[in-house]
Amino acid sequence: MEEFMTEKEQAAVLMDRYIELQRIKKAEDREKEIDYQIRTTKAKLETLGVVTETLDL
User: Fold this and answer.
1) pTM of this structure
2) How many angstroms separate the CA atoms of 56 and 48, rounded?
């Protein structure tokens, strides 16, 4: 069974991404903000059952 995101869901995901990028751009400590973004994104992915260990560089 294929699952598709609605346009509203796609817009919400892209809005979140845009906000994340703006936070990084404006952060006083970019490394700290990037680490925060990675941690929160990893937590969201793991909540959905995505194994993130293979994604780490």
Assistant:
1) 0.74
2) 17
